[in-house]
Design a protein that fits this description.
Length: 289
Amino acid sequence: MSTMSLSKELKELEAQGIDLLEILGKDQHLESPESLQKIISTLSCSDDNLYVELLYQLTWRRFPLDEAVRIWGGIRDHKKVLEAALGREVGFRVAALDYLFSIEKVLQGVRLVARPEFESILSYVNVDEVTGVHSRRYFNERLAEELGRARRYSHSLSMLIIDLDNFKQVNDLCGHIEGDSVLRQVGRMLMDTTRQADVVCRFGGDEFAILLPETGPEDAGMTAERIRLAAAGISIPGENDLDNVMLSIGGATFPDSCDEAEEMLALADQMCLDVKRAGKNGVRIAGKE
């Protein structure tokens, strides 16, 4: 599975001088429509979901698909209105700021921050510095968003809670530096074995959590088992008698086994505890025999 997020794909295009936001906003022009379609076909998303991601990059708010498409069209129309009124070209980002601040009123207290400083702040807030996966804060935000989306469109949403078995022994015998190395390897493995749409985070200490949008209990169980088997390939560094990494994984699914975010967290965590009490190194998904 690809580990590159759509955000990173867009940044790579920008590094090549291709700013999709400006191209789709008519600030930048390509040689032909075929050139645009060729670029979009390389991205890991549908055409409509691209608008969701582009607006997210622009505003750091993730709008529902239908709302994102509507807002994008509104910005393009507003750009034409501004250009006609001012008698000059208006950048798409400028039109977006005015439209979202003055007309849609979804932005308040806007501040201008240079991209490098902004991305540094985002990384500090949203990324776990040890493992490189998302922070718990980011996970909590996305849980609320994904649960709302699943409820709105009658989709399933699964959550996995993943605990490293006997990790205290790793720190005690190998030291915290080597322990952090193991956590980083587990983080990379989790990114490698999940989809771009999934949300991987370090939940705390030796515990990780994953959101699996549009995933029922059966598929969540298969994903969890794939993760457990992949972890067995991660060895503990140094000269010791410790086994390779083993995981206890619990899961819960909306709406099959829970209805609210807190209930989903508690149930997935309980499933994980049940695995540990039963001998560790296993998977248990609520509602799945």
